[in-house]
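so my prof wants the structure for this chain in the C-alpha cells format not the other one, which i didnt know existed until like an hour ago. anyway here's the sequence
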Amino acid sequence: MHPVSRPRARHLASAIARQRRERHSEALRQLCGKEDFPTPEEVLAAPKRKMRAAGFSLAKIAALKDLAKKTLEGVVPERASLGKIDDDGIIERITQVRGIGRWTVEMMLMFQLGRPDVLPADDFGVRNGFRLAYGLRKMPPPRSLTAFGERWRPHRTAAAWYLWRAVELSRAGKLPPPAERIRLPRVKRRKARRKRAH
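here's what i got, hopefully its the right format
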C-alpha cells in the first residue's frame, strides 16, 4: 500500500483530535502497526472491536471509517487538486464526512492550507473579539458577522486573527476603545421548505 498523503493524514488527524486527545492519535498508529497515520484502506479494514479496545468511541469509529470511505470515493480532495478548489468547494466536500463540520474545515483552511480569506463566523473567539472590538453588548449572530465581514475581503483570515487578538488584549486590559460605533446588518433567516404531500 502507498503511504497516505499529507492532506489525508491531516484530515484523519482532525477527526481524531477534535477533543484534543493525543492518545487517540497514537492509538490509531499502534492499531495499524505503523509510525505514520494509516491509509484509508487500513482504517476501513481495522476491526471495530480492536478500535473500541484501543479507546475509540463508536461515534469516533463511524466518523473515521466514513472519512476513509469518502477519501477513497474522491469526495475528500487529493493533495494535487486542493490548490484548484476554492474555499467553499473544500468546505462543501469535506463537511459531507460524518462528524466534520464547517468550523473544522475552516480551521484546516487557515492553519494547514494557509488560505488568506477565511472568516470563521461561528467561532466563539471570533464573535467575542468582534463584540469587544466594536463595543457591542451582545454577541453578533454568525450570519450578521459574515455579512459585515464582506468588507474585509480578500483578507478575512487576517481579520479573524485581529479579532482573536482583541480577546487577548481585553483580558490584559489593553484593548483600546472602539474607534466607531456600528450597526450590524440584519440577515433574514432562511425558512425551511415544507415538503408537499403527494
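also thought this was worth mentioning. The chain is about 55% helix and 0% strand.
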